[in-house]
From TrEMBL, chains A, B, C, D:
Belongs to the NAGSA dehydrogenase family. Type 1 subfamily. Residues 2-141 form the Semialdehyde dehydrogenase NAD-binding domain. Pathway: Amino-acid biosynthesis; L-arginine biosynthesis; N(2)-acetyl-L-ornithine from L-glutamate: step 3/4. The gene is argC. The active site is at 149. HAMAP family: ArgC_type1. This is N-acetyl-gamma-glutamyl-phosphate reductase. Keywords: Amino-acid biosynthesis, Arginine biosynthesis, Cytoplasm, NADP, Oxidoreductase. Its EC number is 1.2.1.38. It catalyses: N-acetyl-L-glutamate 5-semialdehyde + phosphate + NADP(+) = N-acetyl-L-glutamyl 5-phosphate + NADPH + H(+).
Length: 345, 345, 345, 345
């Protein structure tokens, strides 16, 4: 197959390249960037010295459509909303890693992203690609909205509870932490080494644009789940997200029964690993891999459940899940080209 | 004054030394350690090359009593419970940085610390040294139980609310994060560089021994506050604690009124800095200093309040607060010898 | 093929597992450890949850010989010297990642390692596995001594010059820097997070045991090259080695001619990437991969050449090169199972 | 005294503030910045919340002259060359932390800095402020050129040898490593967290602008010392410089005699600490302090001397040494306001 990566010079783009370069069914990879001054992929990323694909091409929709069977958009929010309509074509499948096509309600997009939304038709056609929950829809998707990194960790950690409708209204609190690569590849004082190193920050308190995305899915599963409190923190590390979630349940449970519920829920999902032995995952345990690891414990003292979910934000939180969806859309095995073990240490 | 530091070779001990070596009213510092094989402070800590105090002395209670006016115990939990009774003396004031004398209920100590508690009499005499709340008691203390690092950050973040009795029962959730120096100075695989670097971990889920300490104080202030959910995470950084707290209030508030409440509550406390401009502190903003910085925001959408409190765990969370208490016990200015600005960057 | 990893719980062992688990020609992997108390691989390394091999077996030479076609020894120095003789067998090939079989002169081993050397016969039979230099010998090796991490980076950086015999006697200075995983997986204060983070150390000044290994090879290539000055530093990072080398040449050269020399020297070596554009590699550009990247510049001002060589110490510096040698010994393609791109960022 | 800090919003500026805010003889600190849009120091640096000086003033030479007794220029190179002439005044002493006034030969400045040099008169009047070597000149300085960070570490490490004239011509090699704060406070991809973390880089090979500064001083001390080879590396840490230096001596020495030479050379220098016990300093051992720590070992095997010198680049490498010079210029004790112990850990 011929594959295009739009936004190839960002961290999401280069992670897609890392996976697809060794994917058995990918023949050619075309690299596109809007940064006209960038000439060669190896100059941007010397760790790719000696690869065959090296040319960085401009964003010309007609050429992109002609050259590719599938394109991945690994672009900042706001680009896909305007670019995707120009790429629409019977032959081309589109996988969008940005937030532009995820919210069905375009008012929500405007409110939280403070940008113009994508055309309504596009929003309705795009399939939300939380793989473990929506495999059937994904099979036939032509336009796929790949989930955000925080929503992926959060939703996979909550799905077994919320689909079971055992969560008390308005009781979910998500305290999320992310490595810095989630902020993208750009020159900014706020993400400079000296400002981040040996430091721990909270940001976008009550204002993160992933809140409506998470609530949209939760409400599909159980309309009585209500609002979530959601906060985001920056950890001085490169990759990884941990969502620590506090939940009140409608009835008494214990840890062991809940682990069974999770195990059963994910038994056909090769990339979700539920801890059955009372341990909790740390972010490095999924580093560089497509896994989502989940641990949980019910606290009899407070009658509150703690669920911890970790992913690599560039993999299961972006490029990895995108390729997982690409596999399903293409009729391949779900884990084709994704069987990396985590890089540990 | 003649000052003793027991447990001088730990990180708490050496931080006490850093402060006291430049304290105007401290004449001599005596260094004690139970590690008999350690011979010289400079061999342990070459960053102290060229200091005058260098001898590491063994733990001999009689000699300690003779040589000092005040001793600081910067020892692991379990030591102080048995050592303090041997140090009791009319002339000697004792400041204990461990958890041994903090819990008034010795059953709680046994349950959470899984060690033998200190004698009852000692527990009743020890004054809990959360400086900003208990200045009057501290003035006359002979035995001071210096608060834990997590309790300091948490309690200073919650005190204005709980003292005002505006918190809904059982609604407090504390998601706490700490740098690695909080784990002490010792050889352990779990805190080795390679296991921590580029990693983020949760630990002691529902089981941290600081839970009863926090609840003991909260219940003093408002017996209706109920249980807290409390979790602890390890951040790949050396110093710093952030407590992110989620609270439901009994009535509607807004951020601005709450900021006023905090400002007013801490107006005579030089080391608590409340953010009045809607920003939130990061841990590095108090690095190496005795400050506790607090930011907060009420979320109208979920009717939940988020409070963020940061400290340097070795300073306000240990040695700094201990010297603050020492100053008050000795009749000095509260901030004597503690006027460091944070080291930033 | 049936493969054994002895010392599976160390960082070298688990990196071997990461590679071999996805190697096309490896059927079964058997995991051995001398730590009797360790029961399961997943308990040691939860990032491997859901793998099939999980049993940790004791070190019983007869069983090891029976179960495997090839064994990798990823053990600390001193183990292989005594264990390898017990494993000798017509059917079993041995790849030793420790330093025990590298030095042909057993006096050197005793002097630098301060341990008893391996039997002379073994030392003479072992083939030194610096792949790019000794492919022909490696093909027929039964016992392979896999090079040290520092020697690999250093020797690949120097080989084109020294084989060309253009280096001035006693002029080579190697200033080497390593990530902390090179120190192995163990509980030690010296490699604890708090002691390493935000710190840069020099260690083993003039005394590193890799000095005789480097000089042994250099002297094979040019007996007039003399002694090297070699120093080692610890960088607060997990993986990666950089050797910065300063060399005086016998005649005038320029950078461009030297780049040609290197390019030509490594033209059949898929894992050595010479920078032809005047840039220098950083360690992260080979992270998680088997590459050795080299940059160089001749300084007309001082008539001295600077060569920079980087590797991932756990890959090309240990497990990666070991599998590269395994491939050659087994008649596979040199890069079989090693085609990872570096993990960047 | 009334003190001005020009370039107050950079890392050098804020480190000056950290020191001077607690300096006994400093009454008022005025803060100047060329960034007109910046309004308040606390907005820039929230770790300074609750300080009294907060106004950021524009760079108006007349006002600066009127308001201050001494000004520190903590500006990027190129600013001081043009600004200093406007500040010249009988009453105002100027301490320039940039590289603009350090090179006596303005051709060198142009060649290495690629900028227009300062007026010749200024270059000739400026006193080079390597405190330990030039105390007498500094006493009477009106314009002081504060040394660069790398030159400070390097020159203090070499001075005892070169002043003794025992160094072989062209034999000095300096392999220098720096934390990232040395690159200043600005938004740049090259110093973003994700590009630096878990990475080790070499940069400006053979081209660093500190080379002529180092050679200028060395040649003053011994015109036969020749050229140095000098390379610079970026360490993933915030503060700290280590210079590892390789030197050939004109005659045989041993470590012990060399330690004596260094001890004797620095016996009146409170901020230089020579390791007498065969250990070597690490960068964290001077973190946040004004110390320069030196270790050394003569290698009989190669007849080469290794000297290691470490400083905190923002302290002894910038603001700390500037205040040390300010003290001498003002007739205070050399260590006034600089008696911090290193912050460790």
């Amino acid at each position: 197959m011929n594959i295009g990566i739009i936004g190839a010079t960002g961290y999401g783009g280069v992670e897609l390249y890392r996976i697809l370069a060794n994917h058995r069914y990918v023949e050619n990879i075309h690299l596109y960037t809007s940064s006209a001054e960038k000439k060669s992929y190896i100059d941007e990323y010397p760790h790719l010295s000696h690869i065959k694909e090296n040319e960085l091409k401009p964003l010309e929709p007609d050429q992109i459509k002609e050259e590719n069977d599938v394109v991945f958009l690994a672009t900042p929010s706001g680009i896909s909303a305007s670019l995707t309509p120009e790429l629409l074509d019977d032959q081309l499948k589109i996988i969008d890693l940005s937030g532009d096509l995820r919210l069905k309600n375009s008012d929500d997009y405007e409110k939280w992203y403070k940008k113009a939304p994508a055309p309504e038709m596009l929003l309705q056609e795009a399939v939300y690609g939380l793989t473990e929950l929506y495999r059937e829809d994904i099979k036939n998707a032509k336009i796929l909205a790949n989930p955000g990194c925080y929503p992926t960790a959060t939703l996979l950690g909550l799905a077994p509870l919320v689909r079971e409708k055992i969560v008390k209204e308005n009781s979910i609190i998500v305290d999320a932490k992310s490595g810095v690569s989630g902020a993208g590849r750009n020159a900014s004082l706020a993400t400079s080494f000296v400002e981040i190193q040996d430091n721990f920050k909270i940001y976008k308190v009550h204002q993160h644009q992933h809140i409506p995305e998470i609530e949209q899915e939760l409400h599909k599963w159980d309309e009585k789940v209500g609002f979530i409190s959601f906060s985001t923190h920056l950890v001085p590390m490169t990759r990884g997200i941990m969502a620590t979630m506090y939940i009140e349940l409608l009835e008494e449970w214990n840890t062991s029964k809940l682990v069974d519920l999770y195990e059963s829920f994910y038994k056909h999902s090769p990339f979700v690993r539920v801890r059955t032995n009372g341990t909790f995952p740390s972010t490095k345990e999924v580093y560089g891999s497509n896994y989502c690891d989940i641990g949980l414990a019910f606290d009899q003292r407070t009658s509150r459940l703690t669920v911890v979910s970790v992913i690599d934000n560039l993999m299961k939180g972006a490029a990895g899940q995108a390729v997982q969806n690409f596999n399903i859309m293409s009729g391949f095995q779900e884990n084709e080209g994704l069987n990396f073990l985590p890089v540990y240490p």
